[in-house]
Amino acid sequence: MLGLQTHRAGSSGRFGALLIATVIMAGACSASATPSPAPTATPAAATPSGSEAATAAPSPTIAPATLELWLGGILTTATPGSDARNWVDQQIARFKAAFPGSDVNISLLPSNNDQLAAQVQAALAAHNVPDVMMLYSGSYTLAYQSGLMPLNSYVDATPGFYDSMSLWDLSCQDYDCQGGQGTIYAVPSDAYSFLMYYNKDLLAKAGIAAPPTTYDELYADCTKLDAQGIVPFVYGDQDGYTTVNLLVDNIISYWEPGDVQKFEQGQLKFTDPKWVDALKPILEMRTHNCVNNDASTLEQLHSADLFTSEKGSMFEGQPQFLPYFKSIYDKIGVTKLPRSGNGPLSSGVIGSSGDDWMIPAGAKNPDLAWELIKMFSDETAGNSMISLLGSPPCNIAAQGNIDDVHVKEAFQLIQNATLPEMDIVMSQSTALFLYKHLQLAFAGQETAEQAMAAVQQYVDQQGGKP
User: Fold this and answer.
1) CA 202 to CA 225: how far, in whole Å?
2) How far, in Å, CA of 264 to CA of 420, rounded?
3) Torsion angle of alpha carbons 53, 164, 194, 422, nearest 10°?
4) List of domains in the chain
5) Tens digits of per-residue pLDDT, 218-260?
6) pLDDT digits (tens, 9 = 90+) for 431-465
7) Helix (H, G, I), strand (E, B) or coil at 266
8) Number of neighbouring beta carbons within 10 Å of residue 78
9) What is the pTM assigned to this prediction?
10) Are the CB atoms for 20 and 182 separated by under 8 Å?
């Protein structure tokens, strides 16, 4: 969800092969805007003692320093006292124990894509960069590749590191890590998809035995839930995020092997029925009284409150929403979102790595920054990520330790991904333009055809490739 506007290479290597068959992992986008002020730094937690301290010995060649850490992606919400911040503080405490005299200043980037993009772009342009950043994967990261330090030398110098992690490709040049031989710009952190969460008690109250698998079933369920005074499907589309999530999921109903490549080359246009027909049933959710009245003005994160307060029965989101649902954890289920088509890929889900760790070019302390990234990426960090962030980690050893029932359900679905998140493999400027028109469409100000025609016109003006 960030982005310098850069040229994005076409499909190639393993990325291109995965588009033909199964899973590839994606990210998101945003374009430049008026630069925002630098984020405000806050101190990390104090170093613990005893078993909480890291056992790794510090390298004698790395001098102590205070690292500047900017948190984007899912960690934009890592405010003091939150589960996300507790996870970050735990890893920093281990780092400080392993590297005495070193410290970390934490700065939170904006959760709004445009503002985040402007801030990162301004920092890179001014050569006033942090030591480490987390950003969303895919084009959210690779939009900045000219301002990022290639990490191959660090990865190669860390025995077993590459093989200890999964879902690498969206963190490498041309979305193809070539088994570690391609240019690596970031380290993947967690697995990501858009799934449906549902409250089993509220569905039962309306006489619904199982969550809907199609949009027609969803519309029927909406009628039953609405009659009980229950918001059927919680929706927060102030920035177009819920609509785009549903759209990039529902296109799996219509797309075929090879369509991602066609899209990348500008041959499968936004005006194609494979896009438009996937959008139409989403817009019809409003006419079937499926959503809350303020769906088009409610911010996506805040919409989760309707679900946790049991005013709404279904909610769309990534696994990282699970910690928000602690108060109703035993009442919820996790499943695929409903689909409106039955194409050859429709049995799977969309999926990707979700977030990346990276070192900007010109960082003052790159060697120490790599040590912090290693700490954020190890099995210990992955284990606590499961409980505190709700995220299936990219660390393979930690994946084997997933015992949370809902995180496990989500991870099993993501392992069967058949399509990437398409707003991550298009340019950031295109994705931001798409979000805005999807928001207008769901608000009733544009039809599906008008929204997608506007996006295609924008793409044509940019040269014809998304």
Assistant:
1) 8
2) 12
3) 130
4) 13-192+352-419 (3.40.190.10), 195-350+427-461 (3.40.190.10)
5) 999 999 999 999 999 999 999 999 999 999 999 999 999 999 8
6) 989 999 999 999 999 999 999 999 999 999 999 99
7) coil
8) 22
9) 0.79
10) no
